[in-house]
Input
Amino acid sequence: MLDKDINAFERVKLARHPDRPYTLDYIETIFEDFVELKGDRRFADDPAMVCGFARFHGLSVGVIGQQKGRDTKQRRHRNFGMPKPEGYRKAMRVMNLAEKFNRPIFSFIDTPGAYPGIDAEERGQAEAIANNLLEMAKLDVRVIVTIIGEGGSGGALGIGIGDRVLMLENAIYSVISPEGCAAILWKDASQSSLAAEALGLTANNLQRLGIVDEVVMEPGAGAHTSHLEAAKLLDQALWKNLESLKAVTPAELQARRYSKLRAIGQ
Output
């Protein structure tokens, strides 16, 4: 467990650590028999978004998550974990299938943000994210969301509506990056540390505000020090939260999501 006294920008660095486990690392360790589905049935496949079905403690489940790359070639292929509209539509396609077959959904957030390129805008980036927000709020199956690294603005929200929102100890979740915030407020990106504190983007802050339901501890000096131990801790939290929703009816799931979203910021 990491020192609780480290500042917000140190958490940002840990959330971006190049050796931190990504979505596919957790899928490989926590889930069994993962079968990936590709393509949004409209335009193309988006490697920045990984989607499919697997088994979790014997249960058939849907799994979606953003995926970064380890080396330069992978990072280019995965677009640095920044999904395009087809990525969000692919995720929604898998979520609709999961709902059809009554399978719980696990969503893993790890993105600096949705891809801001002109081609993404031309294909309806904002509409794709907005549609996901609406449709995820109406799903009648259990949805567990986990922020495992960076949770960047609308890019994170596009797969971030759930019945339980978990956040790893050294993950971050914010409307803008500290560098972007500093550039806007102070015209100086070197003020990123100050911006990180002002944004309140750490797990403990967000849990206190009711945006995050549970903070999942990390091993050692961070999840990058032991992928296996980090996966074990997350596995326990996922199972506990999934079981806690077992007896909740679809109508109550939807009502609770609505109430939770309406309460944010009050």
In short: Residues 227-244 form the longest helix (18 residues). The radius of gyration is 17 Å. Residues 8-257 form a domain with the 2-enoyl-CoA Hydratase; Chain A, domain 1 fold (CATH 3.90.226.10). The longest strand covers residues 143-152.
